[in-house]
């Protein structure tokens, strides 16, 4: 286990150089509980679970506890500590800035319009 990552320096640098539409710190409630809090009504985050690798501790928790994947996403961050929504044309720029700040970055998916409250959909 490791202490909570502090993203302040990296995020402040990014905000000074690149447009960011939303920021979600992934804590209790996991991805589906935290991302909708920063999205407007009629939007959903469509996430590709194959876009990142879970740290070993989450794989161990899932196997040892016989926990369904949906429940893992709901309960744990599964290795994603912060989610940022940036305009599509700024994704490469945001990745470069965050890499320069020492962050590991994955493109998890995209924001799409839909009818209803904000939500997360896993492909």
Structure description:
The chain is an alpha+beta fold and 123 residues long. It has one domain (26-122): PurM-like C-terminal domain (Phosphoribosyl-aminoimidazole Synthetase, Chain A, domain 2), CATH 3.90.650. The chain contains 5 helices and 5 strands. The chain has helices spanning 8-17, 30-34, 56-65, 69-75, 91-100, and strands at 22-25, 43-47, 82-85, 109-113, 119-122. It has a 3-stranded mixed sheet. Strands 1-3 form a two-stranded antiparallel sheet. The longest helix has 10 residues, at 8-17.
Give a quick set of tags describing it.
globular, 5 strands, 18% strand, three-stranded mixed β-sheet, alpha+beta, 123 residues
What Rg is obtained from the alpha carbons, in whole angstroms?
Answer: 15 Å
Tell me the CATH superfamily: PurM-like C-terminal domain
Q: Strand sequence of the main sheet, in spatial order?
A: 4-2-5
Helix content: 25-40%
Shape: globular
Order of helices and strands: HEHEHHEHEE
CATH architecture: Alpha-Beta Complex
Give me the number of helical elements.
5
Structural class: alpha+beta
Give the overall average pLDDT. 94
Return residue spans where pLDDT drops below 50 for at least 5 consecutive residues.
none
User: How many strands in all?
Assistant: 5
Q: Give a short account of the largest sheet.
A: 3 strands, mixed
What name does the CATH topology carry?
Phosphoribosyl-aminoimidazole Synthetase, Chain A, domain 2
- Beta-strand residue percentage: 15-25%
Q: For the terminal residues, how far apart are their CA atoms?
A: 29 Å
CATH class: Alpha Beta
Number of domains: 1
């Amino acid at each position: 286990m490791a202490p909570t990552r502090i993203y302040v320096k990296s995020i402040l640098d990014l905000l000074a150089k690149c447009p960011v539409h939303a920021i979600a710190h992934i804590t209790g409630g996991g991805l589906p509980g935290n991302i909708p809090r920063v999205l407007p009504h009629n939007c959903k985050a469509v996430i590709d679970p194959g876009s990142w690798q879970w740290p070993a501790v989450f794989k161990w928790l899932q196997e040892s506890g016989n926990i369904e994947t949906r429940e893992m996403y709901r309960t744990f961050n599964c290795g994603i500590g912060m989610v940022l929504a940036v305009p599509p044309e700024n994704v490469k720029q945001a990745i470069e800035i965050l890499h320069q700040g020492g962050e590991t970055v994955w493109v998890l998916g995209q924001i799409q319009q839909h009818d209803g409250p904000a939500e997360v959909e896993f492909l």
